[in-house]
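Here is one chain, start to finish.
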Amino acid sequence: MSHIWNQVYLGNSVQSWVTAVVALMVAMTAIYFIKRLLIVRLKAWSARTSTGLDDFIVSVTERSVVPLMYLAAVYFSIRTLTISATADKVVHIAYLFAFTFFVLRILSAVIREAIFSFIKSKTEKQEKQKEAKGLLIIVNIVIWMLGIVFLIDNLGYDVTTIIAGLGIGGIAIALAAQTILGDLFSYFVIFFDRPFKIGDFIVVEDKPGTVEYIGIKTTRLKTLGGEQLICSNTYLTNSRVHNFKRMEERRIAFKLGVTYQTPHAKLRRIPGIVKEIIDRKSELRFDRGHFSNFGDFSLDFEFVYYVLSPDYALFMNKQQDIYLDVAEAFEREGIEFAYPTQTVFIPKEEAAV
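Its structure:
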């Protein structure tokens, strides 16, 4: 029996092969039962809570932690055997690649969850999550670059030269891509300072539109005409942006002009007539009304009121109702609106001739 155990195959005795296989099977079985117990308990725990943290832990455990445990079991089982230097190096490199991949995926998921958890504590989280996609791309690039440097270092190579090369290359790229980097920093300004967000109706200079997408280089607007307007982030941060979504109420000023032949008594009544009309409307607040100017062809009145909502359609509907009611009231009172006219007065003496 001892003769069989001592027989050598591929550089290892039968006993060594059996030991490695048994160790692998025991490790795999243990991981399987740990996985079943752990996942079941975590899922039962997540079902009793309303937070997303437990769901995140279950997801990361299933997708990354468990595969990493299986990988370690296989690797350390193989390391119990005597293999050639070349095979050992290949196994070690493969393990480092796989180990680095899963660890970086866990780190990436943790950072993503941390960012989204911070966003979820704020209002309008869905729009902010869309805006954060560009930030996550940058964070993932940084994580994976650092992971590659870590991997190269563990493979026995000198990373000092690589880091120095990256530094010099980074300076060269920065000089060659100043515009792109400017847009990138402007993206961070938009993300953290939040002058606008996805869904806001903004006017940039003379270009109105609704924000559809905020990327790491450009922001896209859907204009009133239906076409898509693409602006660089630097252009937006350097421009005057009017954000109408932030408007809580809308101030409206309008003027009315009546003819110079309007009697004094009716002129005094006009501010009260318009005030009464506005006060009757819901979601409006009257501010003031005055006889403001002697115009070239009219006696001018100025009125100011507030619409207690930023809704543009509501404002247009209320303004239409006010104009129609003013026209009806002036018609009833015999007050005539002025329009550009000239009246020629001829003295009686010249008329007689």
